[in-house]
Specification:
383 residues, alpha/beta, Rossmann fold, 3 domains, four-stranded parallel β-sheet, 16 helices, 13 strands, 38% helix, 15% strand
Length: 383
Amino acid sequence: MRYVEEFRDPKAAKALIAAIGAMADRLGATKAEPVRIMEICGGHTHAIFRYGLDKLVHEGIEFIHGPGCPVCVLPMARVDECVEIAEKPEVIFTTFGDAMRVPGTKKSLLQAKADGADVRTVYSPLDALELARRNPDREVVFFGLGFETTTPSTALSIQQAAREGLTNFSVFCNHITVPPPIKALLDDPYMLLDGFVGPGHVSMVIGIHPLDFVAQDYGKPLVVAGFEPLDLLQSVLMVLTQLAEGRAEIENQYARVVPEHGNAVSLAAIEDVYEKRPSFEWRGLGEIDASGLRIRAAYRPWDAEEKFGIGYAKAGGRAPTPEPEGCACGSVMTGRMKPTQCPQFGRGCTPDTPLGALMVSSEGACAAYWTYGGARLSVEAAE
């Protein structure tokens, strides 16, 4: 296929939907006893609802929305620490736009900006690096956030800052990795999953083999998927085919983008700049061993956590922050409930007045339901 329109071809989609229906019938899937497939990436969640795939596939297929939004899984305490850094008078705090409105316990970065903090939206850590060059009398901090997809660009920026000796640039590192939370979900006896649609952009960096444990240790099929409707439909069919044939393998539907062994340049930069943290707190999942990355000692001058003595570097450690009253972000993010089952959805929590990141992040499940799922209209009708 050469053009994006070909990945949205209605005729091809109908054929895949019919094949999915036949395979679901073969597996005996029903609405009451569905095949439960978790998509790990928030981009997949939004694509599913944008194109109405949840309504088009067989009623015996249930999509479970996993912890695939890096902004969403960040605990509120880390947002509080961002605000604490940003409110220092010498700091220019830079961040991607989807983190601006994520609420902490007292305020978001957007509210901190309104209160006078110098918070700026950037499109790349290289933008923050340029700000540091232009403002040698200020401390420029980049909010390093994301899964393996965004980790290399931050690493390369730190390497460049080191080459230039640009010590007024630093990174508040909140980069996290996908395999550990998948393992945590699979270890949960209450989490009933039949298979996974795997993260395409993450696998573009790390390859497919870091996910081998899903099939080898837990006997679950996982198909790394692209983001167009035909990508997702084909991936669902591949998962169902594995289940019907009694197989559990890691398959790569997104081979046009994802190399089997990942991107060597990106992996080398990650290895040079980062090391695994002993543990890292995930919203809804708690502390997960070796799931977060921190900046190695060789690059400590560019580590905002060490520079400002904050977060995990803070004397005496840090305590987890409880969820706001009635907020079910953790349960939604781990697939235990749908966004519309949260009592705050569309009432106490809307895009204008969010209680959690899932409602304002570009990859959040609640934002997908609000924007594409018709949930907003049903809430307004009920009121």
